[in-house]
Every structure is written in C-alpha cells, then in structure tokens.
C-alpha cells in the first residue's frame, strides 16, 4: 500500500494563487483568504486520502461541523483579541502536528484543531490573553472539551509549544509574499512594488517571541459571561450584544 504524506501549510502558502481578483481595499482581508484556501486544500486531500486515528480531535457526536472553515476562521479572527502573529503560529503548530505526529487534517477535526492551536499560540505569543472559558465560547465548544483539547495537543507535542523565531519569520514572509501575489493578480505590473510588512515584531532582546505591545482587552466580567453557548457543530449567526460585549449565537448546545 502506497504511503501517504500530507503536504504542509507552508508548502501550500508558497504555491497558493488567488481564485479571483483582489484590490488594495481588500488587503486587510487577505490573511483570511490565504489561510482558508490553504487549509481547505489540505482538508480536501485529507478527506480523500487520509485515515486519521487521532480520535481526540473528533466531534463528540462524530458528525461533521456544518459551519464552513472560512466562516469559522472569520469568527476566530473577529472575536479572539489576539495578535495576528498568533494565527501564523497556529499554522506552524498544525504543520508540527501533521509532520511530527502524523495527524491528518480533515473535515471532522479541522475546527477543533484550529481553536486549539489559536488558544495555545495566544498563550505563547501574547503577554495578555484570555482564559480557556473565553476561547471555549469563541470556538463554540464546552469548557471541558476545550481543556481536554489543549491537554491532548500538548501531549502530542510532548508539552513543547516552542516556536523558533526564524521559522516563524519564514511563515510570515511567505504569507506576505502570498499577499503580494494575490494583489498583483489584478495588476501584474504592480509586482515588486507592494510593501512587504516586516516579519514578526519581537522584544529588543530577541530572546522571546512575545510581542512588546499586547492587544488591548476589556476588563474581566462581561467577556466571560454567556447565557447561550454556540457550537461549531452548527452554523449559528454570530453577534455581539451592544453594551455587553458578550458573544452570543442563536443556538444553544
């Protein structure tokens, strides 16, 4: 039987081309587009060729989440008060899971792997971060499951969440180069003229990848309250209640 090797997200980013034209006005949304396209590509391959044995990342009800990967990514980016670098680290973690642990990304596990890698990356990258209860609400899962997913993730990586600065910079540079390709698709003459943002910002000592400026987050209180919990096994309409900052959805799990 022919062995199966899943390509990495970094490889996909390097070869990613836009599916449509993008303008400069859409530049801020390109990270979502790039992440979605690359992750969806790997998930399709995993669904077709892979048979994953990592049951710990499967939905408890064994059913496919009905919310799309893009909508779920958009939800994480909208409600997670973390730096954008955390999503870069999230890609690195997913590649480590696939390369070092043999985990296969598929339609069943991708949502829970996404919320888990974002949770871990915020704790590693940012000096200020929200707790597991907050991210369980953002991810649409129970607090108990969020805790279990974090523990299972750390077990697979032997409790090493270390992210090499040079490797993180490689991911960041490839993402910025990919943004360049996406924008130049509309106007080929603009290739090389787009300003590539500097790689990750670190403290002057460069001894730690933690950001020197932490994201502004509200005081504790309402952000940790939720009368109804959304679920990534469904496709809720998300909204933030005015003057409350509480994440709500139209479904209760």
Automatic annotation (TrEMBL):
Molecular function (GO) terms listed? cyclin-dependent protein serine/threonine kinase regulator activity; protein kinase binding
Q: Spell out the residue ranges making up region: Disordered.
A: 207-229
Q: Which domain of life is it from?
A: Eukaryota
What's any one GO cellular component for it? nucleus
Query: Where, if anywhere, are coiled coils annotated?
Result: none
Q: Which InterPro entries match?
A: Cyclin-like_sf (IPR036915), Cyclin_PHO80-like (IPR013922)
Please give the PANTHER family that the UniProt record associates with this protein: CYCLIN-LIKE DOMAIN-CONTAINING PROTEIN-RELATED (PTHR15615:SF106), PTHR15615
Task: State the protein's name.
Answer: Cyclin-related 2 family protein
């Amino acid at each position: 039987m022919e062995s199966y090797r899943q390509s990495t997200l970094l490889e996909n980013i390097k070869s990613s081309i836009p599916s449509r034209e993008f303008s400069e006005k859409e530049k801020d949304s390109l990270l979502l587009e790039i992440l979605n396209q690359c992750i969806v590509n790997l998930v399709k391959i995993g669904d077709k060729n892979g048979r994953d044995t990592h049951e710990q990342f499967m939905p408890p009800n064994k059913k496919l989440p009905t919310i799309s990967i893009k909508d779920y990514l958009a939800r994480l980016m909208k409600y997670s008060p973390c730096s954008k670098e955390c999503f870069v680290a999230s890609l690195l973690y997913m590649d480590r899971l696939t390369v070092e642990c043999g985990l296969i990304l598929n339609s069943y596990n991708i949502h829970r792997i996404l919320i888990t890698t974002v949770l871990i990356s915020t704790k590693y990258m940012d000096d200020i971060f929200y707790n597991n209860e907050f991210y369980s609400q953002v991810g649409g899962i129970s607090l108990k499951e969020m805790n279990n997913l974090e523990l299972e993730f750390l077990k697979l990586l032997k409790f090493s969440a270390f992210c090499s600065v040079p490797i993180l910079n490689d991911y960041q540079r490839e993402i910025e180069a990919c943004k360049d390709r996406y924008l130049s698709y509309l106007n080929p003459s603009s290739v090389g003229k787009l300003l590539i943002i500097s790689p990750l910002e670190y403290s002057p000592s460069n001894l730690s990848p933690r950001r020197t400026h932490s994201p502004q987050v509200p005081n504790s209180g309402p952000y940790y309250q939720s009368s109804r919990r959304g679920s990534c096994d469904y496709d809720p309409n998300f909204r933030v209640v005015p003057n409350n900052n509480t994440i709500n959805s139209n479904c209760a799990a």
